[in-house]
Structure prediction request, 267 residues.
Amino acid sequence: MMIREAGIKDIPQIQIVRNSVEENTLSDPNLVTDQDCEEFLTVRGKGWVCEIDDTIVGFSIVDLKENNIWALFLHPDFENQGIGRKLHNIMLDWYFTETNETVWLGTSPNTRAETFYKKSGWKEIGMHGKEIKFEMTSGQWKKNNMKQNIKSIRPFIGAKNFEESRAFYRDLGFEEFVIESNFSVFKKQEIAFYLQDYYAKEWIENTMIFVEVESTDEYYNELLSLDLPQKYETSKLTPVRMMDWGKECFLHDPSGILWHFGEFFNK
Prediction:
């Protein structure tokens, strides 16, 4: 499979694909002429084709003059292979390098194309004749295509007594990595947070962290065995309670930060 820029020589095969579709069909195949295709490919915008074994099976064309997706079609024999998605993405990537103008398209209601565009982040704004009109902004396209995956989230928390809190979290099973004399990161499995030698009463007493566990009952028993409230005077462990959404227990650290350990019911 190869995705490449479309040229004038591809127009005959593009027309074959256009007239093979089972949705968004043309009432008269002569409505879209070879001259129309050539104008949109060479003057008004740009197009791309997908080739398999030297045969074009799909194509996309965008019109810069009217800020419109002029065509995105795939031969029915090649659906559900990700080809339409590739043609869609390469077209919008190019469009938004050329302009920041919002792009629009129209498609028939109650079709697979309508579902495709909704899932692709297009915003429905009304009707264009008998078709649903969708729009995509430059900003939304950039958001939809952020390629960097999030690896972790690490909150910053404070401590009334930094050394006591360090010891507490080590006893809780976290591994400490000292960054500076008053700043450490604590890690346990996929969880991590930064502990800093800083205390603001209102902030600390309103800090809550929720940790999802497989079994709240079993985790509570493990916390109970650590005997943390006996070692740290201001620490407090609250038994498991049942909620509408699941179960949870609570653990206050020596500074007053409230940790929730809970599990969600499967619904």
